[in-house]
Amino acid sequence: MKIDRASLALRRQPAAQLHGKVVSAGSLSISVTGLDPWLRIGARLRLSPPAAPAVEAEVVGFAEGHATALAFGPLDGVGPGTPAMLAPSASLAVDETWLGRVLDPLGRPLDGRPPPPPGPLARPVRAAPPQAGQRARLGPRLDLGVRALDAFATCRRGQRLGLFAASGVGKSTLLSMLAGGAAADVVVLALVGERGRELREFLEDDLGAAGLARSVVVCATSDAPPLMRREAAYAAMAIAEHFADQGRQVLLMMDSVTRFAMALREIGLAAGEPPTTRGYTPGVFAELPRLLERAGPREEGCAGAITGLFTVLVEGDDHDEPVADAVRGILDGHVVMDRSIGERGRYPAIDILRSLSRTVPGCLRPDEAALMRRARAVLALHAEMADLVRLGAYRPGADPAVDEAIRLAPRIEAMLGQGKGERGTVESAFAALAAAMEETADAA
């Protein structure tokens, strides 16, 4: 009996808490001491300023006997001597009721509704990708609902595609088309560093009620601290992994990887990393594959997969800038959006000739592959001869291949145009492509 009473008394005692204190603070980083034996890179802290709300922070480095940490919110009220307490590691208890919700990277609601109930099992936000030798192969081809992609950059379940675009080319509209038209069970959308005013516009005008109903949106706006912007990508990936492990087909869309890399650059510089190419720190290029490799098929025997579409901002149409170059080498294909195509009035403004899916050979029938190659050849020849035709330097009949390209290319371009509300499949995309080419040939 005495042992039982003692055990009960011990269980009623509050858990021991480890405390340190802030010794210095700046605009982004703080230095903490007193917790040295228990701290590590990535450890979470809770700062408790005397006259302000508690602030969560994360350890990003160590220097001169102190831990350097960055905060997830404003450092108002934090100063030397502010208590710092060790907090639990980052995790999300994802539940079915998270579908249709708009959340911040910490799982707090941004849609004015009550917080979503936690699921039965908390999942760590930072996780390793599946072991390469135990990972399932890519699944069958996936209907994305966009003719230009279904016909010329056909995607498979578990594939990862990069969407390379400058600002103002129609990237958000294309993402909304994919969210509504792709053959996926769940859509997870990560908005990293988005403008605050654009969130409701995207949700209400682009995504719509039907698209939101099967989606989980994780958002960290451009004014959020770099840790929050970085955490948006990790949180979205953890949510996608939860649903994929249930055997569902998940479409993960991240807008954008570039802003994720920029947040990593800010964190690395604050932690004392040296700037390298265009100011990016070495840790940025180590972290990109760790994040992107988590998408894809799950372990062998799991029916679920994460099909990833990751946008990359190419400022000034520089497709060889460091982040774009690194991401292109990690992913399974790339889709390029071109401003000049949008200026001609064809949306989505996807440049077919510069877009590529590396899994096309494994998911197209021989007749479809032949049709796609022929259409690409027609578009390439038309682009090559466009200036001569425009100037009147080409005489019809001089080259049968050029004459065919002049006839067929406008029909193919018309087929590639698609309204925001239109939906399709891979089968219907190839049928439309074949019809456009055959009809024009007959008319000629």
From TrEMBL:
Instruction: Tell me the PROSITE patterns matching this sequence.
Output: ATPASE_ALPHA_BETA (PS00152)
Q: Where is the composition biased (Low complexity)?
A: 122-134
Composition-biased stretches, type Pro residues, lie in 112-121
Q: Where located? A: Cytoplasm
Looking up SUPFAM superfamilies in the UniProt record yields: P-loop containing nucleoside triphosphate hydrolases (SSF52540)
Q: Please verify whether the record's keywords include Cytoplasm.
A: yes
> Per the database record, which ranges form the AAA+ ATPase domain?
157-342
A Pfam family found in this protein is ATP-synt_ab
Please provide the record's keywords in A-Z order: ATP-binding, Cell projection, Cilium, Cytoplasm, Flagellum, Nucleotide-binding, Protein transport, Translocase, Transport
- Cross-referenced InterPro entries: AAA+_ATPase, ATPase_a/bsu_AS, ATPase_alpha/beta_chains, ATPase_F1/V1/A1_a/bsu_nucl-bd, ATPase_T3SS_FliI/YscN, P-loop_NTPase, T3SS_ATPase_C
The record's catalysed reaction(s) read:
ATP + H2O + cellular proteinSide 1 = ADP + phosphate + cellular proteinSide 2
**Region Disordered, residue ranges:** 106-134
Recorded hits in PANTHER family, A to Z, give: ATP SYNTHASE (PTHR15184), SPI-1 TYPE 3 SECRETION SYSTEM ATPASE (PTHR15184:SF9)
The protein in question is named: Flagellar protein export ATPase FliI
